[in-house]
Design goal:
174 residues; Glucose Permease (Domain IIA); two-stranded antiparallel ribbon; 2 helices; globular
């Protein structure tokens, strides 16, 4: 599969594992290209969940797997603090503003390709301190919220340096 950073690495405002001004290590990588910026998908996959988190605001979880063979394995990407299509980048969520999704045209189960816009940079959730994308990677649907995660910036850089993978099922390039 092909991988890319959602924005230039120069826009990284907080790295994975950083503990400065935090009570626990940072569980993702923050990109701050400016509020409202379109967020391109970092790889191909399927929208697995769209939900509100009091801390992370609007979150879209993408399952990364061969689109033709979407088994239970694969990585999960969490795009967090997303802007709401109805209430903008400072949306306060469904309990206050009544919204049900931050998207106009994206829903659970949709296939997405690398580079396809998957949202806009926002400032949603109580853990956001200004408009940015908090990007995570793990192996479960709930990785963005809890459980084991790993450094997505490092992961993307490693994947970009590797020779292209082929699908184990159909032997097509990913």
């Amino acid at each position: 599969m092909k991988w890319q950073h959602p924005f230039p690495e120069s826009t990284i405002s907080s790295r994975f594992g950083v503990t400065i001004r935090r009570t626990s290590p940072h569980r993702g990588t923050d990109y701050a290209p400016g509020g409202g910026s379109l967020i391109p998908a970092v790889t191909a996959g399927i929208v697995e969940a769209i939900q509100w988190s009091q801390c992370l605001g609007w979150v879209m979880t993408q399952k990364c797997a061969c689109p033709e063979h979407s088994g239970s394995g694969g990585h999960r990407i969490g795009y967090c603090h997303l802007s709401c299509s109805t209430h903008g980048e400072d949306c306060k969520g469904p309990k206050i503003e009544g919204c049900t999704t931050p998207f106009k045209n994206l829903k659970t189960g949709d296939s997405i390709s690398i580079g396809q816009p998957v949202g806009r940079v926002g400032n949603t959730g109580d853990c956001s301190r200004g408009a940015h994308l908090h990007l995570t990677i793990g192996s479960s649907k709930k990785s963005a919220f809890q459980g084991q995660v790993y450094d997505i910036a490092k992961f993307i850089n490693q994947k970009r340096a590797e020779k292209p993978e082929v699908c184990k099922c159909c032997k097509r390039p990913l």
